[in-house]
Design goal:
With 374 residues, the protein is mainly β. The chain contains one helix and 27 strands. The longest helix is centred in the N-terminal third of the chain and has 4 residues, at 100-103. The chain is globular and about 55 Å long. The two termini are 14 Å apart.
């Protein structure tokens, strides 16, 4: 373990800078080193990489910060809209527009404090100094719920430039089969929040606008396949039955009619694990690992991991490395189990390294890099 810290002054507060420590791990293919880039983040939810090397991090309580390559953490950015920060709700996912270099748009999701019941919303903004400007909420979903749970809320731009959004069913399982709302749906939007004319339910007045797929429980991971362009998503099951799914236009993913899980009290849910007309998962975890964050690895730093899928586990506190063969998950390795805490987000950086966020009041941004040779 390596040590060495320095402190950075920001608006009268000392924030810890990088690196605080590093630890080496073995795996089936690569030895890797975990380096703490920054810590002191309050329940961070997502990280996005800016072209100048800085990183943008959302914190669930409603703040957004910039982390430099040296690990300096900015004060909270001004201009973030009000969020409904309760339980699982708050400021959630972050991505850059594919043409960020020319238009400067960042996109984020948050739990919108609707006057009736909170729901998941999508917003975009630009960064100017230490503030968000040109902030606009471009979509507010029809997925209301009185509880503070199951907002879903991952974002991904597909190769056609359309923005995909995951929505939780807000603990209203039966509503995930109701196309008139968006509880447990995924969305496909234009980059301004309007609805593409070629969406699977376009023109149907009985389907909520923007709906791409439905029958999901609480999807907290989404990634685009690096060569084929498919959109993959994973979701939390109840007690057992966490799933990885290939999102298909108009697909019904079954919740709560079919599931590999049971209720938290141990009772059967629905009609079984399969039903004609409902999409089966590519992979499922029983017991549940509570997955969050997901990325396909395409870098050169870990050549034996190319094409692997990486998923964070909140419950068992490890990074899952999944080997794939087309649409099959053929093996799984648990990396760094228990070393970091609850892993909320997993991203590949522009440097070809893997970055993790830990969900904690003293959350960390951690970088995985090849271990130095002795």
């Amino acid at each position: 373990m390596k040590f060495g810290t320095r402190m950075v002054m920001a608006t009268g507060l000392w924030l810890l800078a990088v690196p605080a420590w590093a630890q080496t791990f073995d795996s089936q293919h690569h030895a890797f080193e975990a380096v703490t880039v920054a810590e002191g983040l309050r329940h961070p939810w997502a990280v996005a990489f800016l072209p100048d090397g800085r990183m943008l991090v959302s914190e669930r309580g409603g703040t957004m910060r910039i982390v430099t390559e040296d690990g300096e953490v900015s004060p909270p950015l001004d201009g973030v809209p009000e969020v409904h920060a309760e339980k699982q709700g708050g400021l959630l996912d972050l991505v850059l527009h594919p043409e960020y270099a020319s238009n400067g748009w960042i996109y984020f999701t948050y739990s919108f404090p609707h006057p009736d019941e909170p729901r998941t919303a999508v917003a975009r903004a630009r960064i100017d100094g230490n503030a968000l400007v040109d902030v606009e909420t471009i979509f507010v979903a029809l997925n209301p719920g009185t509880s503070g749970g199951h907002f879903g809320s991952r974002l991904a731009f597909a190769p056609d430039g359309k923005l995909h959004v995951t929505l939780g069913e807000r603990n209203r399982g039966r509503e995930a089969q109701n196309l008139a709302n968006q509880n447990g749906a995924t969305l496909r939007l234009n980059d301004d929040g309007s609805i593409p004319g070629d969406n699977p339910f376009a023109g149907r007045s009985d389907v909520a606008p923007g709906t791409f797929s439905y029958g999901h429980r609480n999807p907290q991971g989404m990634a685009v396949h690096p060569t084929r362009g498919e959109v993959w998503a994973h979701e939390h099951g109840p007690k057992g039955g966490d799933e990885i799914n290939l999102l298909k236009p108009g697909g019904n993913y079954g919740w709560p009619v079919v599931t590999f899980g049971v209720s938290y009290a141990g009772f059967k849910i629905g009609e079984g694990t399969f039903k004609p007309g409902m999409e089966p998962p590519l992979h499922q975890w029983t017991p549940s690992i509570a997955p969050s964050g997901m990325t396909f690895y395409t870098g050169d730093a870990f050549p034996e991991w190319k094409g692997n899928l990486f998923v964070g586990s909140l419950k068992f506190r490890y990074l899952a490395r999944l080997e794939t063969d087309n649409l099959r998950i053929v093996s799984e390795e648990r990396l760094a189990e228990g070393a970091f805490g609850r892993i909320r987000d997993v991203r590949q950086g522009p440097d070809g390294l893997i970055y993790l966020l830990t969900d904690d009041p003293n959350g960390k941004l951690v970088r995985l890099q090849p271990a130095a040779r002795p």
